[in-house]
Amino acid sequence: MQPRVTAVLVARNGADYLPRTLAAIAAQTRRPDSLLLVDSSSSDSTGSLLSDFGGAVITTPGRRSFGDAIAHALQVSGGGSAENDWLWLLGHDNAPEPGALAALLGAVEVAPSVAVAGPKLMRWDAADTIAAFGETITTFGRSVQLVSDELDQAQYDVQSDLLAVAAGGMLVRRSVWVALGGFDPGLPSVDAALDFCARTRLAGHRVVGVPAARVATAGPPELFGRRSLSAGAQNRVRRAAQLHRRLAWAPTIAVPLHWLTLVPLAVLRSLVHLVAKRPGSVGGELAAGIGAAFDGSVPSARRSIRRSRVLGWPAVDAFRMSTGQVRERRAQERAAAAVAFSGHREGPGFFGGGGAWVVLVALVIGLIAFGRFLGVGALSGGGLVPLSSTVAELWSHVGYGWHDIGLGFLGAADPFAVVLAVLGSITFWSPSFSIVLLYLAALPLAALGAWWCAAAFSRRGWGPSVAAIAWALAPPFLASLAGGHLGAVIAHILLPTLVLAIVRAARSWAMAAVAALLFAAVAASAPVLVPALAVMLVAWMLARPRGIPRLLGIPIPAAALFAPLVVDQLGRGSWLALLAEPGVPVLQAAPSGWQLALGAPTGQLHGWDALLAPLGLPGLVPHVAVLVLLAPLAVLSLLSLFLPGSTRSIPILLVALLGFATAVASTHIAVTLVGSQATPIWAGAGLSLYWLGLVGGAVVALDALGSRAGVPAWVAGLALVAVAVPAVVSGSSGSTAVVESSGRLLPAFVTAEASSRPDLGTLELRAEPDGGLAVTLHRGVGTTLDEQSTLAATATELTDDDVRLAQLAGNLASRSGFDIAAELDALQIAFVVLPAPAATEEAEATQLRTAESLDGNRLLTPVGATSAGYLWAFEGLAEGEAPSGPRPTDSPWGLGILIGQGIVFGLTLLLAIPTTRRRRVRSARGSDSDESESASGEEAVDD
């Protein structure tokens, strides 16, 4: 009996594909006996195209899935279900070759046990490439296409039994379709054909693939009726289908266990997605897990299987892909990814391109400048004091809690405290030693970061080599090192790596996470750079709109760090104080605009004025010398605007402009108080960004000069080395603010007493240059660098505690009837120290008067001169408790902040962990796009 074929063509918004598909159906050598045209509520011209083809068009009420639309059409059209009646299922983007239906019928006519036959699906835009042919499942139930995106070389042209075939172009016996109830409504797109074919086998029928039947397809089933679908959305659809099948296929006894693990497994797999650089899949993963837990279609799917099943599940298990086959498939994909990656453009090699030599030179110069710190345990001076003595103490000063500064206060810690905690944890046995190591390695680290950044944009080694020298010996960098501005030092070292990470973040989730961590570190170290970095980030988003989802996440860790401090500062109405330099406040003069243009954050010309002063030369000579030495770098930067590649130099020089504007603004923002005087923000951080732009412009110019870059590179490099000579000499001779330290902040006598009484107070009275007296209250061994707070340094209004301390200091510095003993007992102050005064007559007079008053106070016992100044002890201190408050983990607010920050940084770290190299992957519609993902893709999270 001749088979009767009813072709069912379902279209939804398929006007772009229908003309070709309809023409292909009309061109069949064995045409269908009848044709059902189904319009699933399209919003384009699909309906008119179907009507023009001829015949009645069935319109579904509302948007239906492919399977639902077929079921509706068969219900409306009626018709029998004789044993030799067949349904040919086609979508609007399934254009069969002329002999496709004939080949399918030929396969089923010779094998009566076959109930489903599937064609070889070919790519719509590449007729010689197999889009899909055959489906199976892994041991854990994940669906896998046996063949996908392979060049058709007849390697699969052997008809064989398969577990499943795709829905597009499927030929199915009508009686079987009716008996099984068609596609499962719980599987609207993905795995619908797989589930149907599995149920067909359980019902005792065969499923075969027919390679001679070729049908074009424009995309996977989840794209039916859609223009596009993000990778995260595709993962959600596929995972939801897998979970539905798991619940529908599982033995009854196992269903509760599967149901209980849905949400926990979704959370676990979300973490795996982060590690595999697929953060866009996290939301879909969670949604699929939660949706499966409330999937009301599972019971009916299970009933359908029980009603039609004739054979046991071994009929399906025989076609599963084994674990070994899955491993082999992953290995092949990794090998393909490695081959694809090997085609990327190579820049200069680190060793062959001169990078190693430049870093070695920077190391030697660094040891000359700071070699005197070898064997030292801690540093102090300028903006530096030692860190806390243990890692636990370091981490206890992050978040939100009590600050033992003055009489103490409850507030947010500076984000820089986290940077210091991480830094100190590296040398956990002696946290302060980490700063010593940083000074010894600062120059080579800066050179290494600059070289790698420049090499990523250069084809030759001259540019990266000059960039490394220029960055390692940058005047603002050396000035920050000399002045103990640790935040500016860290920011300078990290800036090139941050820029490189941000550039690459537009195409890589891993680099976006790395950029987020670096952005947080730079922002915490030098908050004044945040506005400029934000402008740069927004500009890069506009330049790379496709990378916006990745770039948007870069500021999130920094925002998590700054949020508590922002709330506190805005609560005081001091939003500019958020830009204050973290660390020990340092009194400094604001440099002029001319000095800033020369890269000098201080009032000196990189030390050349002091170096040439003994020679008796005119004052203009140092300016001329510095101008001459900086001229090669400036000329190369400006020249980049007129050489090939100027499209790169323009944004780079705009970065320099942003940095210069930041430096100028820093000198006009005086939010930090040192005693009674306000001091501007350190301009070195802004000048580092300014210098980065200048160096970047020089790199572009040297790369454009090609083989003629040798002489300009040597001239610029040697000139920059010459500029740094005074700073290096000053560092090696020890004439900088930063000096070696024993690690003590207070006299040894006080430190010994504080070892058993960490809450013991020491009152520091310091004579100011104007004759005033500054008072500071230390607890325990003293206020370490990680305990410093910009909330205290930028406070402009006197609190009751400030008045109380000032009153105590005033009465100690003069004879009065004030009950000093009671106040010392109440505040648990056991010592008074009087450091050396400022070098002014007013300060010396105040120092002398205060010392006489302290000596004449019978409550205080003179201890004598110490390295920290003159010391007096209050031996009659009564037992009591010093003012205190909750630590970060002692209050719900503080604990919540720590947990929130921990989650943000934990997820970012997971995303930043390297897995595999970037590879080219093919999108659902066949276009190529760059993605950074696990080479094994979805297979990395099978269960």
UniProtKB/TrEMBL annotation:
- Return the InterPro entries for the record: Glycosyltransf_2, Nucleotide-diphossugar_trans
Low complexity compositional bias, start-end = 934-943
- Region annotation (Disordered) maps to 920-943
Domain of life, per the record?
Answer: Bacteria
Q: Which UniProt keywords apply?
A: Glycosyltransferase, Membrane, Transferase, Transmembrane, Transmembrane helix
Gene Ontology molecular function: any one: glycosyltransferase activity
The molecule here is called Glycosyltransferase
Native source organism of the sequence: Antiquaquibacter soli
